[in-house]
Design a protein that fits this description.
mainly alpha; 5 helices; about 120 residues; DNA Binding (I), subunit A; about 45% helix; 2 strands
Length: about 120
């Protein structure tokens, strides 16, 4: 793996980060944990990891709890879902459909809400 520099939360604008959290209802896309009161436990995950050609577009970013994001690491979605299935989590197809549905939603209205919140 290439040597990477950690950028913290500076790799994405605050309003876009908040808009994605709003789009996803402040819930982990994978385990459905409520993240409204988790503070730093609320993270963004790349559905297709950057290491595998993913980008920082709204269609490739989802809200994830720190536990799921850490477990997923740089696995592709299908590889991660296979490990989730092994742990007896929700049906894989339900998670896959939720990811697909949320990443197809446009962020326009959520960005507006985010900008108003950050004022």
């Amino acid at each position: 793996m290439a040597n990477r520099t950690w950028h913290g939360s500076k790799w994405i604008r605050r309003d876009k980060r908040l808009a994605i959290y709003l789009r996803d209802g402040f819930r982990c896309i994978y385990c459905r944990a409520d993240l409204t009161s988790m503070g730093e436990g609320c993270t963004l995950d790349h559905v297709t990891p950057v290491e595998l050609g993913g980008d920082n577009s709204e269609g490739n970013l989802v809200t994830a709890c720190k536990s799921c994001n850490s477990a997923k690491r740089d696995l592709p979605l299908s590889g991660f879902l296979n490990t989730v299935l092994d742990r007896g989590a929700q049906p894989v197809e339900a998670i896959r459909n939720r990811v697909r549905r949320n990443t197809r939603r446009k962020l326009d209205k959520y960005r507006q809400m985010a900008k108003e919140t950050l004022r």
